[in-house]
Specification:
279 residues; alpha+beta; 5 helices
């Protein structure tokens, strides 16, 4: 690792439960309305018929999580037409001499004290790639979702509503506490005095109402990451976590890497390498 690579420390957030969601914050309204909405749990016609592109961690270590972006000075010029084409394919910013975000990493402080972290120490951890979810409902679609072709009425494990493929469309990726997403959903239902949802039209109306609250939240995130590349997100009754700019200016898919506890299997570190998109 060269002197041109360094860590940006965004600070910490607290996850009280063992569930986290890695997702483009642009998709949060859709996730809240169609996946974390408890009013649709017993209504088969309203349950999602598709899996959302995002990574759901159901066995993450609770507690204090530190959040970092890894930045690297983009000092090189493409020495061939092929190299320039590869950079274009990855959506890499070619403002040579500028710094670019190469990866986003979060880890639980119980296992690793963040004030002693370096890029080298981060790379030395026992990273393993988290593969796409072969049990998710449906088959791969060209968009940001998996379309379901199953006609089974069996209850679906909540984790199978997520593909474990991270799609980044907005140029940002966030790691959020799922408990805070559920709390946000409940707060929005209470705000709009919605005690029941009977049909798709009512569900769509809830989605549209959420836009009034979630788009200002999303715009705040955009402003913060434009200033500092990575930030902790902690607003009342909104999803809690950390959001980082990606190193790409086009829609890209990624598989993330994780580090697990050798004994419990709990995930205590998560990383997305923006230079290694999923084909």
């Amino acid at each position: 690792m060269t002197e041109n690579t360094h860590l940006i420390d965004a600070g910490c957030f607290i996850s009280q439960m063992n569930e986290l969601l890695l997702i483009d914050p642009l998709y949060m309204n859709y996730a809240i309305t169609n996946y974390f909405n408890y009013l649709i749990n017993d209504k088969s016609e309203l349950l999602p018929k598709e899996s959302l592109n995002g990574v759901y961690f159901e066995n993450a270590k609770p507690g204090l999580w530190s959040s970092f972006a890894i930045k690297e000075k983009n000092r090189f010029l493409p020495n061939s037409q092929k190299m320039e084409q590869n950079m274009n394919d990855l959506g890499i910013d070619k403002n040579y001499g500028n710094e670019i975000i190469t990866s986003f990493a979060c880890f639980n402080n119980t296992e690793f004290m963040h004030e002693y972290l370096t890029v080298e120490k981060l790379n030395e951890l026992k990273w393993e790639r988290l593969e796409s979810n072969i049990n998710c409902i449906g088959n791969l679609n060209n968009g940001n979702i998996y379309k379901s072709q199953s006609k089974e009425d069996k209850p679906i494990n909540f984790s199978n509503y997520f593909t474990n493929i991270l799609t980044v469309e907005s140029g940002q990726v966030g790691l959020f506490c799922t408990e805070s997403i559920k709390n946000c959903t409940n707060a929005l239902l209470e705000k709009y005095e919605i005690s029941d949802i009977k049909n798709k039209e009512e569900l769509d109306n809830f989605f549209n109402k959420n836009m009034n609250d979630l788009y200002p939240w999303y715009n705040k995130i955009c402003n913060l990451t434009l200033c500092s590349s990575i930030t902790i997100i902690d607003y009342i009754d909104m999803p809690l976590g950390s959001v980082c700019m990606s190193g790409s200016d086009c829609v890209s898919n990624y598989l993330c890497e994780v580090v697990k506890d050798d004994i419990t299997g709990e995930i205590w570190a998560i990383r997305v390498n923006f230079f290694n998109p999923f084909k």
